[in-house]
């Protein structure tokens, strides 16, 4: 059974029970008040009639007339005729002898005086009392019929049953519509959760209520947004890891195949010393290449896990250390490194910034033609300190620029492989920039060169 079904049945049952109990209590109280009023009225009328009969008898006796049964009958009949229209009947007893009765069965003459009773079966109110002296031997009985009161109460009970039969279905319909409307947000949430469970993480609850359901919908949408973001990130990470694994397997296959081939060649019986040295040299170069690849992968792993402690880094010392590290490769490639700096310090990790510049210069060396120059610049742009490496080599296409920071990507596979590159340099540069919370910019144009810049904090910011 659904929640709104339970709510509908519970509210309907409670409302009907509460309404019926309240109406029954009110009806019982009303019946009690009406009955008390009728009893009080009967007592007053009985006392009034008894007093009138007593005064008539006193008057007759004062005129010297004897008060016998005939006189008593005439007096009682006169009052009985008058009150008969009001459904009141009278009886007069002389001791245990019935003197007069108005068409009703005789009451018990032994009933005590001043007795006021309500006979349920006959729907009558009976009141009896003895007359004052000197007629204390006379007993007057008053009987009032209250069938109309019972009839009105029965009519009221029937009306109450009719109202129950009519209001019950109407109330059920109203509650059905109301509860369906109130529980509509729950149905929306249920439908949305089912859609999200099926894999559509972009689904959201379209609910504009400003009540608790509206707050629940907002919190649910925030949760779904967070889940969607995390799933997207996990998917991207899974794709990146798979791509890295695929590229790594591709990178390892070539040097391992070469090393295996040359190792087999060394095991051959008839080779000269010169051929042995050549084969060993190839194995050595491929070993260095694998070592470089492993170290760069370790650098990427460390950058993802460790935070950066920023210090004041002198730009001149940073540039000089990079120049010394790259001097041999620059001379072998016939290139000139031009250093220009208009700022003295930057804020960052000196080792990581040196690694950033070394990777950028390595890429510039591989992309530059002999007798050209590479510029390493430091300057202020707005509130940021910019470190830039610029070359005037072959450059890259817009598509190559978009993929340049992906691990193992090479703009020129043959040229990069001939220099022992694994395509990890710019990926490491991106990780270094992210570790410094810095912006990274790459601009390149084919046959005109490439410029890569990192925007750091100034040491005084």
Question: What are its keywords?
Answer:
single chain, 461 residues, alpha+beta, 5-stranded antiparallel beta sheet, 5-stranded mixed beta sheet, 11 helices, 17% strand
Structure overview:
By secondary structure, the protein is α+β, with helices and mostly antiparallel strands. Helices cover 59% and strands 17% of the residues. It contains eleven helices and twelve strands. A five-stranded antiparallel β-sheet has the order 2-1-5-4-3, with helices on one face. Strands 7-9-10-12-11 form a five-stranded mixed β-sheet. Strand 4 and strand 5 (138-145) form a beta hairpin. The two termini are 64 Å apart.
As a whole number of angstroms, the C-alpha radius of gyration is: 57 Å
**Which descriptor suits the 3D outline?**
rod-shaped
Order of helices and strands: HHEEEEEHHHHEHEEHEEHHHEE
Question: Which residues form runs of ≥5 with pLDDT under 50?
Answer: 109-116, 413-422
Number of H/I helices? 11
Beta-strand percent range: 15-25%
- Mind summarizing the main beta sheet? 5 strands, antiparallel
Helix content: 55-70%
User: Mean pLDDT score, rounded?
Assistant: 80
What's the N-to-C terminus distance?
Answer: 64 Å
How many E strands? Answer: 12
Strand order of the largest sheet: 2-1-5-4-3
Structural class assignment: alpha+beta
């Amino acid at each position: 059974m659904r929640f709104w079904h339970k709510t509908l049945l519970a509210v309907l049952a409670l409302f009907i029970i509460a309404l019926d109990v309240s109406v029954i209590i009110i009806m019982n109280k009303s019946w009690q008040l009406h009955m008390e009023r009728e009893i009080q009225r009967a007592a007053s009328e009985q006392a009034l009639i008894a007093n009138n009969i007593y005064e008539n008898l006193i008057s007759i006796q004062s005129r010297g007339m004897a008060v016998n049964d005939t006189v008593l009958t005439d007096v009682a009949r006169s009052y009985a005729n008058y009150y008969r229209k009001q459904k009141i009947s009278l009886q007069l007893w002389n001791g245990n002898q019935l003197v007069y009765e108005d068409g009703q069965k005789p009451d018990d003459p032994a009933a005590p005086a001043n007795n006021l009773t309500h006979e349920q079966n006959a729907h009558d109110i009976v009141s009896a009392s003895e007359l004052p002296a000197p007629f204390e031997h006379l007993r007057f009985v008053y009987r009032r019929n209250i069938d109309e009161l019972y009839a009105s109460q029965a009519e009221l009970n029937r009306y109450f049953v009719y109202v129950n039969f009519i209001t019950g279905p109407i109330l059920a319909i109203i509650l059905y519509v109301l509860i369906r409307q109130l529980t509509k947000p729950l149905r929306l949430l249920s439908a949305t959760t089912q859609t999200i469970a099926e894999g559509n993480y972009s689904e959201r609850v379209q609910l504009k209520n400003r009540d608790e359901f509206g707050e629940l919908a907002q919190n649910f949408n925030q949760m779904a947004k967070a889940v969607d973001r995390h799933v997207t990130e996990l998917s991207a990470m899974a794709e990146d890891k798979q791509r890295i694994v695929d590229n790594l397997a591709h990178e390892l296959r070539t040097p391992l195949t070469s090393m295996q081939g040359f190792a087999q060649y060394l095991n051959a019986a008839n080779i000269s010393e010169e051929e042995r040295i050549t084969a060993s040299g190839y194995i050595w170069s491929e070993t260095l290449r694998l070592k470089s690849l492993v170290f760069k992968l370790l650098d990427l792993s460390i950058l993802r896990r460790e935070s950066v402690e920023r210090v004041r880094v002198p730009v001149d010392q940073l540039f000089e250390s990079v120049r010394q590290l790259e001097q041999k490769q620059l001379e072998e490639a016939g290139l000139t490194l031009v250093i220009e700096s208009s700022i003295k310090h930057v804020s960052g990790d000196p080792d990581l910034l040196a690694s950033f510049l070394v990777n950028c210069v390595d890429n510039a060396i591989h992309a530059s033609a002999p007798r050209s120059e590479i510029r390493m610049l430091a300057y202020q742009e707005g509130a940021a300190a910019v470190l830039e490496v610029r070359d005037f080599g072959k450059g890259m296409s817009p598509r190559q620029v978009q993929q340049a920071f992906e691990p193992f990507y090479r703009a020129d596979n043959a040229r990069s492989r001939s220099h022992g590159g694994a395509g990890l340099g710019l990926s490491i540069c991106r990780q270094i920039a992210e570790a410094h919370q810095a912006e990274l910019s790459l601009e390149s144009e084919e046959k005109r060169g490439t410029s890569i810049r990192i925007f750091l904090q100034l040491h005084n910011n």
